[in-house]
Amino acid sequence: MNYWLFKSEPETWSWEDQVAKGDVGEEWDGVRNYQARNFMREMKLGDKGFFYHSGKAKEIVGIIEICAEAHQDSTTDDERWDCVDIKALDTLPSPVTLSTIKTDERLSNMALVKSSRLSVQPVTHAEWKIVLELSQR
Fold first, then answer.
1. For the segment 55-68, what is each residue's pLDDT rounded down to a tens digit?
2. Domain 3-134 - what CATH class?
3. Phi/psi at 101 (nearest 5 deg)?
4. I need a labelling partner for 113 at 20 to 30 A (CA). Which of 15, 58, 102, 129 fits?
């Protein structure tokens, strides 16, 4: 299993919006960055990810699961753009802020710190466990 992080501004698509979709989940559409698209093409059913509120909040708030592998993004006819579907699994007991992540030496190489603008990014197994620990889960 691989781990990922998905970023969204809560005003556009929030954790609450994701939770409301239930087990059906939702397309993670509209991504127009080749690296982020390529990461989605690597994702497998059952992979887990963090849901991150970007913008003002800047915090990891929940855990998602990949419920449909890469397929054509329904928001464009351009065949270059794929997306995956994700469903909400669990709300973190305590959100983990970007400032907490940046001050934790163990997470200094996390993509969220190094490639902060990328909307879909990998998370290592070690980083996954540390973030869960920081969330008090």
1. 999 999 999 999 99
2. alpha beta
3. -60, -45
4. 15
